[in-house]
Hints:
By secondary structure, the protein is of the alpha/beta class. The chain has helices at about 10-25, 25-35, 50-60, 65-75, 90-95, 100-105, and strands at about 5-10, 40-45, 85, 100. The chain has a domain at about 5-80. About 55% of the residues lie in helices and about 15% in strands. Strand 3 (about 85), helix 5 and strand 4 form a beta-alpha-beta unit. The protein is globular and about 40 Å long.
Amino acid sequence: MAGDASAVFSIVTEAEVRVGPLRNQRGDELDRISTLLSHHNVRVINASREIARTASVIRADLNLDLPHAIIVATAVISGCDALIGNDKTCARRVTEIPYIYLDEVVKA
């Protein structure tokens, strides 16, 4: 990552990105994920009561599933400029933070 760019990951996101490589027994992919998440410009944010409370409001307001509400709440509480993801429901419903929908970016 160049310059002042940084990334924030929710612990939910960390858990999710590890599932595929674990299912497919891809140790090399797990190693790359670990390297990415340990980069000095990357922070993995643990759940907190503040995130839980914010997630409950987001879940109630937007009718998101709990994991996505936690991810959105983590981004909001952490002061992120945007949330990058590939969930069509989130892309349509999330208004608390700009949502960059990867399917649209890749197609452009």
